[in-house]
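Hey, can you fold this?
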Amino acid sequence: MSLTKKIAVCSALSLVIAGCNSSSNSRAIVDLRLMETTDLHGNMMPFDYFANKEEPSYGFARTALIIEDARSEVTNSMLFDNGDLIQGSPMADYIANQFAQDNDYFNKHTHPVYKAMNLMDYDAANIGNHEFNYGLDFLAAATKDANFPYVVSNVFEYDETLLTIEHFQSNTCDVVGTQLGAEFLNVAEPAFQPYVMLDRTFVARNGEEYNVKVGVIGFTPPQIMSWDASHLECNVVVSDIQATATYYVPIMKEAGADVIVAIPHSGLTGGDQDGEFIENATWQLARVDGIDAIMFGHDHNNFPTTSGSYDGMDGVDAPAGKIFGKPAVMPGFWGNHVGIIDLVLETRDAGKSWTVNYEQSTTELRALPEDESAKHQAVVDEVAAEHTATLDYMAEPILAISQKINSFFSAVVPDLSVQIVNEAQYHWGLSQIGSPDLDFEPGSILMSVSAPFKGGRGGSDDYTDINGDQLTNASVADLYVFDNNTPSILKLTVADIKEWLETIASQQYKTVQNDGDYLLHQMFRSYNYDVFYAGWDAEGNSIGLNYTIDVTKSPRYLVDDQGELTLIDGKPQLDSQDSRRIGELTYDGQELLDEQIVYVVTNNYRASNDWIPGIDNAEEVLKDAAYTNRELVDQYLKHLAEKADSKQAVPEHEFVNAENFSLIGSQGLTVNFLSSPRAKAFSDEVDSIEFTNETGNVGDNEGYSVYTYTFE
């Protein structure tokens, strides 16, 4: 055979196999495993600080074992964290308190999340929305000890010379993000590293080494400007996730990126709805050319999944873990899973350029070890001191009580876990009346609104459950999970409150007609189940606030099968304009008139939700970043302790359930809902609720029990 013929034959065969001497390097395949953690929220230990017990269903000390196993199975791998890392657990709260007392804390100590994660050789990490909760100084100080680069591309330095009056809603730093287009991105200064180019050497299937440049780009929800306005306003501005990706990805390609991995702290909830400044924009991001793999998070769900959560969503193959054909993963929350994408990279020019074979690339989620005692000992040792300090802090008592406080049935019957928060906010609201900071119209009504922050979304143990002995620092964190919320007071009308409640009732409740129907959209985020309350007047006299919710009627607002609102241009859509589930709203026994003015104590997160009907008409008349809502709870409990018998080491108090809402249905109708198996004992104390031996799932989470509710 001539040399010319030999080269021709080898070139043809090289499309199928590697070999033939001089052509052996022309085509090669690299298998690259990408691994992701997300929404760890400071949960380094598999430990429930609220219940003071081991909890094997989460915790990075167990997650690390999965990472090590998954890494050992392959030759080439990379590891990323999606964000929401440094806030959200009692240990994270403890560290934040240490920094608040000593701004030099991180010059003496490394944040425990980085002590643990530095052991695992992360390649890069993204900044989530909760990274901003303690302020920019805390973020900079805490992350400086991370042995891996951070990225986020859609946050920029505030520079008023680049902005015009059209960019503002008023003469403040409240920038209208929709005005920030490519002309702004061309000149704006990124507040953080928008992306990173990682040069890596990988071994191909043919045994040869190749240099591959992996570009990694991160994103955070634009809503941080509302959620953490006190920290971010006049310091940074944000841009739309999809628009930012469209701007930066070509730049990364031009800089030589062979593969681009997107790490959006942004979910897939809400689906295929186009628009600007979408919070959960992963669907939109997947449509950006040049992005090869997506490792997302934020909404604490699983992807891939067979749960049906994404059925009917255009371009989404949830069981396969593909969005518009691109591999994508979201590994739950608190380290309960590790997301894995096995990318197949191909080159036909000896590594000068690479393509991703999307069809052959696969995705999976790895759950924690079946051995519930298994932990990564090096991680345990690294965070041991902070773990012990957190235990000591959480155990400090505040107030003895003589009743059970839990959130097992919070959407079915009023409970004290929500009411105590409302009492604390109402107590603070009363103190603001007459102050120069609040122009309270005479004759107006003061109310408070709060929600069950632990309502089962995080698993069958994710409920407040205080056993009736005493309230401690752990109880305060249990009752008010979000330590970054700050109090706000909204001015609105009774008609607005009714519309607000209609929105909530549309999402939380299914329409029930027959025995055995399921009552709740169990995937609805319980922290959005707002419950209104009015406690007492300035003289301390008790006031009753009551309303009914008729769940036999159709929802007023259109929702999907998971209870998520259908939004068009960011606004909920009416489903049945004439249907209203909310009945009479009475105050001190008298029905309220729609035009009456009400001042509602809430938090900055809810005050920022001006897309919710009712809230969209509200005026924020007072916000106070000097305290958090959790601190209001702490201060209120200590106030009650001072009022009680001071001769006791820990004064005792009993709360009285205001029973402020009730469900309406056909008399005798018995419906089902899910809650924790631990609620069985408490169900015996609620006449209308009974425990069954059946079990059910919430999304991908198992282990819930079925309960029945019978309408009176």
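Oh, and this one too while you're at it.
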Amino acid sequence: MPITFQALFAPNILALKFALKTLLGGGLALWLAMRWGLEQPAWALMTAFIVAQPLSGMVVQKGLARLAGTLVGTFMSVVFIGLFAQAPWLFLLALASWLALCTAASTQLRSAWAYAFVLAGYTAAIISLPAIDHPLQVFDQAVARCTEICLGIVCATASSALVWPMRVEQQLAGQARQAWHNGLQAASAMLGGEDGTREGLLEILGRIVAIDAQREHAWFEGRSGRLRAQAIRGLSQKLMVLLRISRSVRRQWRQLDTQEAEHLAPWLEEARTQLATPDTPSLLLLRQRIWDAAHDERISPAEHFCLARLALLLDFAMAATQALQDVEQGRVPKDASQGLAVHRDLPLALLFGSRSALAFLVMSSFWLATAWPAAPGGLVLTCVVCSLFASRENGAQIGLSFLRGILLAIPVAFLVGQVLLPQWSSFAMLCLGMGVPLFFGALGMAHPRTGPTATSYCLHFIVLVSPLNAMHFDVAAMLNSAQAMLMGVGAAVLAFRLVVLRHPAWLGRRLRAATQSDLVRLTRRDLRGADSWFGGRMADRLMQLARHASELPESERKRWDDGLHGLDIGDELLHLRMCLALANVPMAGAERHYLQQLEAALASGPAPGQGQRLDVASAQFIEALRRQPPSDPLRLAEGAVLQLRKSWGKWCRWQEDMHGAT
């Protein structure tokens, strides 16, 4: 069945509920706006559709973000008109700079609060552009737009919370269990040497990042939602560490000779079996048996390091299971964990903002050159599309979806607004005329594949019909407005197509530089929250590298391996520092000297011929460790130093393979 036909004519029950709730919230907002005599009731109706989300917490958070962005954008529009009303070019340059700044800020945030910056950018354009010919009325228009938008937010939020409420925190338990199950399966696969498949690792990283993002929405759903949000934070951190430790166990396994590997193979297989069907008592018993085996004096140091890390892996498997139970039962975890950090690239964000400003200035030049009365409408659409999609990987495709939505809205709006409504004269008939097309649009919004086009269709249908207490029917004005919409969105799509800023090779170099910078900081960063900070940022970078790998030549696609080398070194460095912290022995001088040598090597980066750079420092530090009274943390620290040296050498050899020896 075609996706569009399924979304519109064979929707599931959840899509029907979403469409009815959205229509109810929008209808209430429109009725109140017209009942109170607001200047543009269409803005209240549009806002209700803009903030519509399937889950209650999402609506509340998006509504608050939109409210905050609207207030800031309103204030800035008054400021711009007050300062530059007599100088059109200065006004447009100031507005373009503000749009660039807000676009850049929104790309730096990976949460729903980024929407506040988006709103702050294009709300200033929405209010100030129509007011440029009447600057003395800008304050009245700003107050009117704020009132209408706030009314739409309140009505949409009330409808979502009171009618068939669907809470984020109720769905988090199922998503958390699925992420936990996939995480343990991925760890088991890595233990078996199946870590070469990019898709498996990317899938679990994507699930962990996605469920961690959901906790923001649950925070707005009362006490139980906040408790689950805190538990989700702990689960995400535990799963991320579990994946990294499973890779470290496999790295240690590769250091065993054939006889040692055969000796430890039963332990590895038993651990994989327990991870496939985990239960805490069995994991605890296996962990104790492995730990006892690791202290057998007959095994080699390499076997000890491997078994000790396998025991640590089981510790985190049990910790992840406990975190899952905290999520399902809605209780605060015993250990407070930080949320996953994200990779932020300020220069890239500024470039995205510059692209938005450039598209805006091109349309502004067209407006000033032609003095087209409808051009401000197209200019507003350019601002909206650039603000929303400038940082998206598929910004041009989403922009084209917006264009399709406008093309669908034009004939429907003509039929309703210019043929039917002139013959009808009551609010009930207005609701009938607009409600049926908007109902089908809301059904399309509920489906991920048709969502962008359906959202654009609904919003532009409302703009083209423009419901008022005293309706004005003008076919020429409607068609003029439709042309301006198409031109505005087309200008934004053209900017996305022509000004390509995410060149894969350039992006790979920037991500590599950011990884090196994080590794350098990791040598001296406070260990509290370091796991979440480094793991979250590296997961973000690995997913970016994977998304662009297909665009690179075959010889360049191994940049994914470059990211994995950085992940492995960061994992070993964290493991080393945590072992030293647990050992609590007086060797600050030797530790400081080794970390300084490691920091210098990481700052310069891996290069051909530099694989032995850490050999001397590693040997000296291992000797210092062995002079201390023997303990388990110190023995694990020794294994981490050896792995750091091997991982560094492997990274440098990888550079030789990629770029040739010097």
